[in-house]
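User: I'm writing a tutorial on reading structure tokens. Could you give me a worked example: one chain, its sequence, then its tokens, then a sentence or two explaining what the tokens reveal?
Assistant: Sure. Here is the example chain.
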Amino acid sequence: MPVPVFVYHEILIRMQNFNPQIGDYLSASAHGDAVSLQTTTGSLSVPVALLQSQFRDPSAIDDEELRTLAGNFGL
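And here are its predicted structure tokens:
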């Protein structure tokens, strides 16, 4: 399933609550079961399953998942 661009924006906004250094969305490229999101301040790999959850039912993603992912920003 192709991921709509607004889903990238939404997930980044949610992660910014845990890591304000995450910038704004610039581009995305798929790599198997993850998508590399390029932002104005770096990059982040996000599992496709998490992006699909953001699209279908954002409330299914708990804060700890977002905190962990946001903590990986720039690594």
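What the tokens reveal: The radius of gyration is 11 Å. Strands lie at 25-31, 34-39, 43-47.
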